[in-house]
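Input.
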Amino acid sequence: MRGSGDGVMRRLLNFLLIKRTLNLPLTISTVTGDLKLERKSSIKNQRGSALIFVYLLILVLLILGIAIVSAVINEGRVAERERRTRQAFYIAEAGMEQALYDLRQDFLNDSSSPSWSDGNIHGYSIGPNTSSYYSLPYTDTSLNGGNYSVQLKNSSSGSAVWVKSTGSIGDVSQTIQVYAIISNLSIWNNAIFAGAGAAGAMVNGNVNIRGSVHILGTGLSSTDLAIDLGGTAELVGNNYNSLAAGLKAKVPTLPTTVVNGETVSTLNAKLRVKHGIVGLSGSSTVGEPNVAGNSDKEFVDGSYVTDGFSGNQGTNSVYSDNGWSNGYDLGDAVTFPSLSDPYPGYANYQAYLRANALVINDATQLAELANITPSSSFSYSGANGGISANGGALTISGIVYIEGGTLGMNKAGSDKTLTYSGEGSILATGNVSINVNLVTNGNNSFPANIMGVMTPGNITFNEANIDVMGLFYGESQIISQKQTDVLGTFISNYFNMGTNVPSIFQVPDTVNNLPPGMIGGDPYWTTTIVSWEKL
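Output.
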């Protein structure tokens, strides 16, 4: 070693101190004997591990890339299938719409006895079958790259049917099924149809109404009462369980439906009130609680009241398939017809009737028609209509126009029955009063025989315990304050039903057997989806 021993020791101690502080390796040159501190590089030793890390990173990125590409491809497949599923569903809906159109047209084009159970659906000779589906033979069902097929299954009613439509595109299919019914929104397809109204309730008192009630209430506010019933009134009944057996035998059997597995008869009754509140007090109800085991449908088919219910019973007394909270559902599709409404080619509808009727304006004849009794005997006829009476038997045909007089039917002593036959309508420019039994002769005789009565004024029923069969339009008011049973329809702007429980029973077949000339007689068919499901 160079230098003195002390120098060497100092240098050695300094190197050791630096080595300890910096953690550097100490080397001694074998040639010179010098002490050296060296920093050994670790880069060379770490090159292998860095390369492995790079390989691992590439592998991870490659796996992630494959996963992302796979996810994108799968997502695309899912999206494409979802697109085709939606497209198949829309195609199924298109098939359903075509079927519903054909079903409605079937009724529009058959004015005599429209039915979905007569073996012909809008020109297609198919069905009926209540146990299994049969196909509508559509020849061109291609739509947007797919196609549809439609099948029908009949119900026990000729105005209700099951419809199943399947839409397909590629290997994807979607099927929807509905239960559809068709209804005639004619004003005559009701027990009561009411128009504008006035101050106070349009329908009041204590009354038993069996069949649909349709009230427009055009002149009422949302706080006015359209209906104010008390006592034991039933505003809308859906069956004939309170109809006398003798009268029931004169009208067609009601259609049936299935409720909770039971086949029951039904009037397909609905309550519709566009404007005004329905007041229910005492024991008055809309519909009735369901009774298992009988042959009648108690719940009404629907309630559509925009301004709601009041009275000390209110919604507690509403028994309807759709509850009580639904608003009026027909918009402005239905209006109240007036005799003063314009009519093509005439000043108004009343002028049309006069031009196409047997016009009676002779004073003697007017006096006879103002007091028709079971002992009356007369006969007036012409090219457009006729009316005659003989020993309590009336015959009516065509249109009879009573100009400048009233129409009255009254009892003769204890005899208070007029039995009529034929199909005809009477318009009286004055008021009408009916105070006798006015019925058709024989079982199942109404509405094969049917009389319609119209007036711009009032129609009054003012005799207790009488039975009346017919269609009645009193534009101003209809008054029925005593125990009168009416089979048919009342149409007016205002009703006064008194407190003695008159009864009105809708006869569904009348809407297909209207006498000539009845105002508002054109049918207005609408198809309603009762149930809908995706299979």
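The first helix runs from residue 5 to 22.
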